[in-house]
């Protein structure tokens, strides 16, 4: 059987040069011994300049203490180690290969550190392999951003920008559960535009939409950031006021009623007067579920309508 001819150094150079990964060999004193074509083209440092140089002297972005702690077990235990882009975006700060399309100014890298042993099995140097994972990282980031956006959109009412009913109810359920474990109290406010059908009939549906949007703005400006405001449907809104008792909630409700009554909406230069009816209900320990709380608030709102509208009623 014939013995294959040893790979000559020219062929080895060619192989190293054609690799789509960075390949660096460092010895125990962190002196660079091998510097392949990938590293040359991304660092703009020729191998004739890099080889023989100290790694930290050439690349100030590499934190010496951190990197030494990373390679210590590779030297000591003869086992590989890995640095992934999620932990640390890069080892060598290189520009992204496709800065225009990749939306990243630098190259994200996964890095493997392999031990190289001598004939006695002693680790004498380490091979650093640098993988360009910029495209994967950027597309994952884009995917995550799109998910966050979708999640936000799925919670928002398109006309008013308030929480939609489904998400608001989710928040209400969570608050209901929290109240079961705490000594604080919270309140609900439910409100509805009076005779809204007349607004639509008189000024048209787009004007009605503007009134709905405008009232949402009043609600946003009148409540706290921690209050959870939602559009329950049509011209009905709900507000969850955490850590707010019935009396305090009545003050907020009255403020809302007054603002709505005093500040007409404006649609295409026409002022549209409107009023609201409001129901208020503080959390009660006797409730069996969040719906009982919502229903009692709705009952208070119904009483406000029955009592003549443009008023606030509190649940008994
Ligand atoms: N412009 C507009 N109108 C809506 C929207 N959603 C519901 N409406 C209208 O709101 C009106 C609600 O009417 P009703 O439920 O009779 O109540 P109301 O006229 O406000 O009377 P009260 O609530 O009893 O004071 C209906 O005419 C619906 O068509 C919307 O998104 N935009």
From TrEMBL:
Q: What Enzyme Commission number(s) apply to this enzyme?
A: 2.7.7.65
Q: Which organism is it from?
A: Pseudobowmanella zhangzhouensis
* PANTHER family on file: DIGUANYLATE CYCLASE DGCM-RELATED, REGULATORY COMPONENTS OF SENSORY TRANSDUCTION SYSTEM
Q: Which reaction does it catalyse?
A: 2 GTP = 3',3'-c-di-GMP + 2 diphosphate
Source domain of life: Bacteria
Q: Which residues form a coiled coil?
A: none
Q: What is this protein called?
A: diguanylate cyclase
Every GGDEF domain range: 184-316
